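fyi for ur records
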Amino acid sequence: MKILITGYRGFIGQNLVLALQNQHELTFVEKDDAIPDFRDHDWVIHLGANSSTTESNVELIMQQNYDYSCELLNRALAWGVNFQYASSASIYGGNREFSEDSPVNPQSPYAWTKYLFDRHVLNKLKTHNRSDEFVVQGFRYFNVYGRYEDHKGGQASPYYQFERQARETGRIKLFYGSHHYMRDFIPVERIVDLHQRFFKVKESGIWNFGTGQVTSFQDIASGIATKYGAELEFIDMPEKMRSQYQTYTCADVTKLKRTLGEAYSS
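which gave:
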């Protein structure tokens, strides 16, 4: 197959390229590149985005995450090219329900861009009369961790940040109350695997990409501290993070399991 990947230099993009490069013909785009003519492609996988959850420039992040995504989608719809894109579990905000049709509560400009594009996609699918010829699939990533996180800085997963701190300083800093901060952590290898499995799914829509299980930040830190002989150091959460911090996420993967059937666990 011929596949266009946006955001190929990013964390998930690098892992996806590694998995696909020997099986498919790949072309690449980053956000500053001109959008190529991809009408002869089988798939677009749109991962490129400003992923900073603390970005305060609303106009900038709307251009990078919403406007750019809309332009790619419009071309995919016009040319009949299958389209996968990265959404985010951040759209659920502080909610305690995490099914695809649960209420949403975006708490940051980043989360809003993801939610608005999800809505745009669903509205387009309702009105586009060629949608049975190709698919548009959105994936709400939960907390992804794994290989190639080194460039993400403060946006890297706690797995990466805690291990780096343990190796470099012998201390792991985490927020007070981290035993109450529970997240659905999913390895990047599983994300890449799910993208590939959905090549065979002839259905459009939005799916959660998580595990349906939770782990606390403190449990992760404690395990890494034991491995490296490091100490835990508790600190206050920065004020600017408190209003938008998700203390709990747990994907409802009912729809994902139903869609993939036996392939979900194989």
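The helical segments are 11-20, 58-79, 109-127, 158-169, 188-197, 217-228, 239-242, 254-260. thats all i got for now
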